[in-house]
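Attaching the record inline, Q. Sequence:
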Amino acid sequence: MFSFQVSGLQNGPLFLRSLLIGMTLLVAGCTVGPDYRRPTLLLPETWSGSDAKDLARPADLALWWKSFNDPELNSLIERAIVNNKSVTIAQARVRQARAYLREKTATLSPAVSASSSATKTNTASSVLSAGEDDQFNSFSTGFSASWEVDLFGGKRRAREAAKYGLDASNEELRNTILVLIGDVAENYMQARAAQARTALAARTAKSQRQTALLTQRKHESGSATIADAARADAQAAMTESDLPAYEIARSTAVNRLGVLLGLPPAALATELTSYEAIHHLNLPMRAGIPADVLLTRPDVRMAERQLAQSNAKIGVAQAARYPAISLTGSIASSAFHVSDFVKGSTIGWSVGPAITVPLFEAGRLKAAVDVAEASRDEALAVYEASVLTAMEEVENAIITLSQQRRRSEKLAKAVDAYRRADKASKTLYEAGSITYLELLDGQRQLYAAESSWIDSQLSATTAYIALNKALGGGWNGEIPNSMDAHRE
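Structure, as predicted:
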């Protein structure tokens, strides 16, 4: 760097003052670096994989989980948004970005500082021989001001980058809440599904124990073999062996819910003990059009804001390659006694520009520009990838929800038929019209069908949750002030 300073500008030659003022006015409005333009992406006009008439209608994404009409789920989500630690971390990042923007905005204004000092001076040749006449006090006070003229817009680009960074942090917070809501809903439904499986296994095992008792009596009367009695007892035990696995699944989901709510893992164990069936939804699928994900997905919007931020940083790097002018001024007053500041002090002042010119940096500043441009290209690729990922998630959720609903409907019919068959088989077995193996085969089929039906209900519900997440559904778009007001 090379720099020089001109002081006492008010007494300088007229042409010098005119030159500097004219140069300042000429380049003050210049801003280097590329202006940001949102990329234009080619997206399909409709979603594939479904013939639903309502598919192209805009999705109702705000508070979508309330469609389940489950007060417990509503309560869990509301508590999670307030207390979840990932949300707290994202809120802190928003406050950091907000403060950083204020910092960059302040660099556009002049800086003023004040100073004062008091000094005791000894003028004698020896400390031992110094007397009161050889010592004196001096006092000084003054003000100084400086302002770096943003000739090439480097500071304005820095503020622009900080503004985009704040936007990205806000979108990160919204995305954190979106993911949190989906995680709470999914784990809640998994806990309810585990309870449904437990209830099914317990009910089936109880029925099988009654059949085993009947078979034992038949054996004692000679109308059934000992093998039939053993098989009946073994079948009941096999069904009962599923109960621990279902309890593990339920406890795991409940423990995860506790952590999502910012609580110890087992904090919700008592609250979620009572059995509740899965609230099955058969709502129309509304996914809008693919272009909607650019507006509704917070992770996509965050990637776009990060792209804009990296674009602004190119201007910051380019501005560093050009000269910089700082206007500085100071005024100071000194006296031997504090009382002399009123009329007996000495006043000195200076004012003038300082020009800093980068002469030889061995390519460092140019390399910084290259780095910024490469970072912009990376951010563009990340943005495009986020859009493709969002579209993939929506497409997968649409087809999964559609097919799982069809599967669930078929399984419901199968379960109903197997229940009728099982009821008839029990009557026939008690009358001795069929063998135990025929009864056993029917019970196995019913139990398998009912288990598959529960799985399909959970899969359809999970797909509905995934579709709302993929479309960017979540909170109502506003972050409650209570979550960060006490930290400002």
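The first strand starts at residue 2 and ends at 5. Strands lie at 2-5, 111-122, 135-149, 324-335, 346-357.

More tomorrow.
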